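Re: the 321-residue chain
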Amino acid sequence: MFLLERQNHARELVQSINLEEWDGIVVISGDGLLFEVVNGLMERPDWEDAIKMPVGILPCGSGNALAGAINYNAGFDQAMGSELLLNCILLLCRGTVMPMDLVSVTTCSGARFFSFLSVAWGFISDVDIESEKYRHMGSARFTVGTMVRVASLRTYRGRLSYLPVLDAHHKEPPTHNHVNGPEDDLLPPLNQPVPKSWVTVEEDFVLVLGIYQTHLGADLFTAPFSCFDDGLIHLFFVKAGISRTALVRLFLAMEKGTHVGIECPYVVHVPVRAFRLEPLTRKGILTVDGERVEYGPIQAQIHQGLSNIISGCDRIRMTSF
């Protein structure tokens, strides 16, 4: 067992371990620490072997999104706190491993890293980062942060481009290589235009969210149709014009996953393989797996089944679009 002393300590540790001495890695924390572990494994010269190391999580953070997804995939009722922790301990003891998608994310400076949960801009990332001051409240920090941000609702101008699932077979020839990680064969460099087969929307947005797990938090059942290795980014965006009442209703419904059936002209969901977000508003917050990243154009591509998650269950849910 390693006790971590600073930010990125876990990232450094997994870069240096001897893979032959380890059967798996269990993170006892929140989603942020798992982000470090995943990227530490992907930054190794032997990343193709390293990323297949089974990784599990025991939820001790504020959001606990991946733990919520594991809990749901195993067939348990939605849980939080000690109940969620006990469920995850049980599933960890079972030891069943499933493939899990990762998403490569490239930021405006050219930095590239890997994500297991989400990319967010606008309302969700604002709440996530601005509620840090309420961290002592545990998961309630997000409720408080949401109410504060609803009371002073912001909109952001941006250009969102995406490759719909039906067009994902139209791959562009590779234009750039990476030392670590698989080729982003669907993405042109950020300084080049997206292919003509992509859809582009320029709007005033309340939020943009690309998510690839069922849960955005242990109590936010955001993408009920998502699976660990379905090869999909579920892209949600909420356009300006939505009322505060409708936005609150949306997040309340999200606790049970019933928001998907709500008909609202301001809320859009589309399954994609890749997307690019270009903020046109000067100030804002971008997060990847709940961690703040540099603000500016950002793009992402799914890589199906790249990693392995200790889910404790081999249950398979079939989803079609």
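The chain is about 25% helix and 30% strand.
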